[in-house]
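Reviewers asked in the last cycle whether our approach scales beyond single polypeptides. To address this, we selected a multi-component target totalling 618 residues and predicted its structure end to end. The input consisted of the following lines:
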Amino acid sequence: MSRINQALRELQSIDELAGGGSPVHRFSPLSKLLVTVGYILTVMSFPKYALSELFLMILYPVCISVLSGIELRRAVKQVRYVLPLVMAVGLFNPLLDRAVVMYLGNIPVSGGFLSLVSLMMKGVFCLLASFFLISTTPADRLFASLRKIHMPAGIVTLLLLTWRYITVLGEEAAVMMTAYHLRAPEQKGLHWRAWGSFIGQLLLRTMDRGSELYESMQLRGYQGDFPAVRQDPFRLKDLLYVLGWVGCFIVLRKYNIAALIGRGAGI
Amino acid sequence: MHMADALLSPSTAAVMYAASATAAGLSVRQLRKENDSRKLPVMAVSAAMIFAGQMINYTIPGTGSSGHLCGGMLLSALLGPQAGFLSMIAVLTIQCLFFADGGLMALGANIWNMAFYGCFIGYYLIWRPLQRSNLFGCQTSHSGRRAVIVLASILGCVLTLQLGALSVTVETLVSGITELPFAAFAGLMLPIHLAIGLVEGLITSAVLLFVYEARPELLMDVGNSEEKDAKMSLRGVIASLALITALTGGALSLFASGNPDGLEWALFGNAEAGYAENMALDEENFGLSSSVSDTASAIQESTSFLPDYAFKDSDAAAGTSVSGLAGSAIVAGACVLISLAGGFWRKRTVQ
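The resulting structure, written as structure tokens, was:
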């Protein structure tokens, strides 16, 4: 299957997940966006050696996974995109930061190793949070909710239209790519001689489609402002959802709960 | 070049969000001034097209590897810098949310690194001046225009990708994520992105040449005789490039003095391991101290979300860590139990 088809299938599967009806799905998109931003900011703010404190932040994705019914395994698949990049940046830490900062029994552990592991954990946690945001919230409702935080109407409309047209143009590109591969079965990718004509053709079709889209929008009364998209109300339960999670994040950030539990267990 | 959330500190992410939001705000204002309602749908489908174009593998002749399209230069040559920038924001936002290409909080930095340079610097510094100049006799000659399109695409993509890669390096280092010194990190990032920029420049030029042959009116600043009075001379282009080189070089040297290279690090960076004593060098009193770096440190200390590096010197660090790890293991066990209980509860609900 070509990369475009794979991407389209991925989009479709996330869209299907977002259409669920779990308790998490029922909170307003804005509340979930705020909680996700709060979570990511908290994770990013942990010092580089604070491994045990950081580890407790896993509670959020685990809870959301359980409440939404979306398996953690499904989310972890996405890690393959982000982990190599994060590792590439942190790979030199164990070589350059060799100062021993703790002992595991008799085994010395260097600061660089701790910082590499914490960097990877941060990458995975932030990714999980973003994944659970988008897999429990339909994209159009999420984009529409950005109006509530005063995102300019033009950008929101652009996001909504782009989101709708990604599937259309993706399918068009996939059809073109299939036709190309049928004519050039030995080619792994797009031959350099076809770079211009292939993407150029797609681009010209795109521009024509843009004009058609504009005309059809005009026929429906478009005069520069997009008709009001459905806005989800921000209710008291949404506020409590945000406050509850943000409170948890502050506690997890401020206190080393893992150490308290460890000491409580007599270790 | 998509940065993950883990590669940035909250303060750096916030600064980059502010910078990108300012550029986006100005772009929206400019488009409102133009009052061309036709543009928005075209921007949306173009963004979707770039998204599809990025999914295609472009075989690089003779290497067996493949390149990819970023799209900033392409969009700004077709739609103009402001519309191109906003379209790139849409592409990067959807990529970040659905394909884990870059993090949600790193989106501001990614927009700056990939869209801002590609659209604004690439357009105002390379594309427009070259298209308005008479380089290769492009105002009258068809082949001259083709040569200028190729030159502008390659120069634009290389320059903007280099600036983007440099920004990634600076943002990661300012965030304190990597132990690599600035020079070593930049030395890794810039050559890689030079090659990527060249390939992207070739792809962009191939597409723009096709559009030039098929529908030249779609290209910005190509064949607009009424705008000739505002044209920028080749001397102007060279002067602008010299200015940006000087600025970039200045910024590089500033950071280079603040961040020692690998050899210096080995000499000073690890006093606990005995390096400083062996070489009889005192890290604190060696070299130049910069008032700029002192001020930057003071600002970073006062604005950092939460203080960093406290763990290492803490007397109780090791003890806390062992209890912490034990606690983490207990929490991990609890997480497994919560997940199993959740699965059991869901099955019962379904039945």
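Chain B has a mean pLDDT of 74. We regard this as preliminary and will revisit it once experimental data from Aim 1 are available.
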